[in-house]
Amino acid sequence: MAKEKESIIAPEVLDELVKGIKTEDDLNSVMRQLSKGLLERILETEMTEHLGHEVGGEVINPEGNIRNGKSKKTLKGELGQLELDIPRDRQASFEPQLIKKQQRRLAGLDKRILSLYARGLSTTDIQAELKAMYNVEVSPSLISDITDAVLEEVRAWQQRPLESLYPVVYLDCIFVKLRVEGVVRTQAVYVAIVISLDGIKEVLGLWIGRAAKEGAKFWLAVLSELKQRGLEDIFIFCVDGLKGFPEAIEQVYPQSQVQLCIVHLIRNSLNFVPWKVKKAVAKDLKAIYTAPSETAAAEALETFSEKYQSNYPTIAQLWRRHWQHIIPIFDYPADIRKAIYTTNVIESLNYSLKKSVKIKGAFPTEDSLLKVLYLAIDKVSQKWTMPIRDWKKALNWFAQIFGDRLLDRLDTQS
């Protein structure tokens, strides 16, 4: 990678600029002057290209169009307000590209507003923050207009076409406070993350629950939506024992495996023991899910049950109840199981989502909630550029287990 130049401004110019800088306000004042000068210089260059001649130069365009003074425009940005002189032409045909005719804000300010909104700040909070940071007056209605524009992106994102195959899908949820029919209620928001054939994480979508516990009908609608968007095959669904979900999977993706998230199962198990013995119980549970085979895992579960039957019998009962959806992991070698059985893949995302909604308290509408969650997802997913750990090993193993279901897709992509 070529080394970036440290400065494109001559040292003597910088020396002149810094002479009067003593405080942060002085620095901001100089930056505003620089911004103003650069923007106006670029606008003049655009006008020269439009007319075909410099200021005072020979008029060569067929229409005889020439400069016709300047107009004032106030732009709001991260440095505060900039008063610009916008060049005009006699025929009013000049269309600036850098600063559009109706533009009143620099792009950086919109990005800052969206960034603050993604953190869960209200429009009033954002207004105060911008005033404190940049001494810029921005109305709550303008902030709402900027964030409302995100809804079009959200809807397009929720309806975008999907790849025909994703090897692994993780489904989890967070709980938020949402005003429904005038009453603030706790609602579940479900998040689906997939691992692509390249091993890259991707969020498929968000679904807001309508009831305290969603059933097969709800999940059938979600999975049918994914299939309509082009998702034809999934090898493994990793879920947290959601009611009705396995039944819905069987109808829409009958060839898929359903794997219970071991991390959630451990957490649920530890809810039945006091804090002082949690570490010991967790260690003994590890012997079950890290066993080399299903048979060895069953033996480890029996050993665990005998040890804790008198004090904490519910834990072994919980594992036996879900045993059918625990055992798929034993089809895979130990070094790639973590790419399959745990929702650690989405823990960082859930942390960011929870952080965004925590500040807000209660959301007035579903749209306001979706905007915040989408912006948070967009920010986190920008870091998802590398395959998850041991993905190549997992892909090779999938090829052995699922055969043509994977190889045919790879041939199609090639």
What do these coordinates show?
This protein has helices at residues 11-18, 24-51, 107-118, 123-134, 140-148, 150-159, 216-228, 245-252, 262-270, 275-289, 294-308, 313-321, 334-341, 344-360, 366-381, 391-402, 404-413; strands spanning 67-77, 80-89, 165-180, 183-195, 201-208, 233-239, 257-260, 362-363. It is of the alpha/beta class. Strands 3, 4, 5, 6, 7 and 8 form a six-stranded mixed beta sheet that branches. The longest helix has 28 residues, at 24-51. Residues 1-7 have low confidence and may be disordered.
Main features:
414 residues, two-stranded antiparallel sheet, alpha/beta, elongated, disordered N terminus
- Tell me about the biggest sheet? 6 strands, mixed
Q: Percent of residues in beta strands? A: 15-25%
Mean pLDDT: 82
Instruction: State the total count of DSSP E strands.
Output: 8
End-to-end separation in angstroms reads 30 Å
Given as residue ranges, the uncertain stretches (5+ residues, pLDDT < 50) are: 1-7
Helix/strand structural class: alpha/beta
Helix and strand string, N-terminal first?
HHEEHHHHEEEHEHEHHHHHHEHHH
- Principal-axis shape: elongated
Rg value: 29 Å
Count of alpha/pi helices? 17
**Share of helical residues:** 40-55%
